[in-house]
Amino acid sequence: MKRALIQLHAAVFLWGFTAVLGRLISLNEGLLVWWRMALTVLTLWVLLLLQRRVERFPRRSLLASFGVGTVVVLHWVLFYGSIKYANASIALVCFSCSGLFTSLLEPVLLRRPLSLREVGLGLLCIGGIYCIFHFDPRYQTGIYLGVSGAFLSALYNTLNKPLVTAHTPESVTLYELTGGLLAWSLLLPLYLHYFPQPSFFPGWADLGWLVILSWACTVLAFTLSLHALQKVTPFTMTLTYNLEPVYGILLAFLVYKENRYLGPGFYLGLGLIVLGVVLQMLRLTRRRAA
Fold first, then answer.
1. What is the reported pTM?
2. Distance CA 259, CA 262 (A)
3. Which residues of 36-59 are buried (b: 16+ CB within 10 A; e: fewer)?
4. Deepest in the core among 61, 84, 131, 264, taking most CB within 10 A?
């Protein structure tokens, strides 16, 4: 369990860095996500084929992986849209809503009893979002996009649990992202029709950031998180993801000085989110000790 938690926190830190990279890259969210997926899928296929670690999935698991991958890509589009319409800090905090969504989705999709404690901890994070929205409504569109992306993130984690318990994490990542790339490639022309971009191809600076986003924040982070998911519950994973705002916000403060634009409501909301994560970690520790 200890190793799984270390892997999970390492993945979350890397994902926190994606918000900083999302603001650095000048492409709109649709193209940013497509290039991230394309570079990641190409890298994974090359690495796993060379290592002969591509697992053959039965048709049912393959279709399930493609479906989950579509959820992932839509989550990314909403997440980066939240960054573009608000800022990295707001987008990361909105992500914390996924804890509440997971506590409600798991009993339905995984057929386990509803945990009122998990719902309560999720509501605590929702309270954090409300504090930010109530005190500073300038980021309304970004918050809506961020919360919608958080729902899809919770759906991804819940649907992913059966896959990673039956197959290797590397192969699950490979097929999910391949399915996500195929799905977004079909949707991208329609997206660009409504949200046009001057050029489909990134500049050299953007390409460099995209490579880092692909290799470190996607390939490595996804593999670490899926290894962790084999040992921890989807809710624990999703609630730990709420530390992504902490890591990402600290980086955004360091790189972009976003703390100059955020009021007291933001810090109150962030405090509630951190409290929710700490309470869940204490709850897990006591359960293991018992």
1. 0.82
2. 5
3. bbbbbbebbeeebeeeeebeebee
4. 131
